[in-house]
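pasting for ref
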Amino acid sequence: MAITQTRPKRKLTGGRYRAYRKKRVFEMGSLPSYTKLGKKTLRLTRGVGNNRKRALLSVETANVYIPKEKKYEQMKIETILENPANRHFVRRNIMTKGTIIKTDKGKARITNRPGQEGIVNAVLLG
């Protein structure tokens, strides 16, 4: 069954909305691309107007902003320490926005959505 980004079939009260049309292609969603730790792999998907979306499936480096030096540096991701989205993502090494990762220079927090942007940006903590 297709994943769609339409309104639900049921109201908050439990009553049903009456269908007034079928599903449309532009309303289609997709399965989440769980970005893991490993060799860099991307999945390209076509968007509206022939735009391309880059879903990051796995990555081993991150662009880390160092606040004290006010510059970016590309660092290797050693491991995932904490994930506020789901505590089980830590065991599976899945990265989402807000994940705390361990890098060469210490802990960093991911500030973007790697599964939708195709890159990992982070800010060094403390």
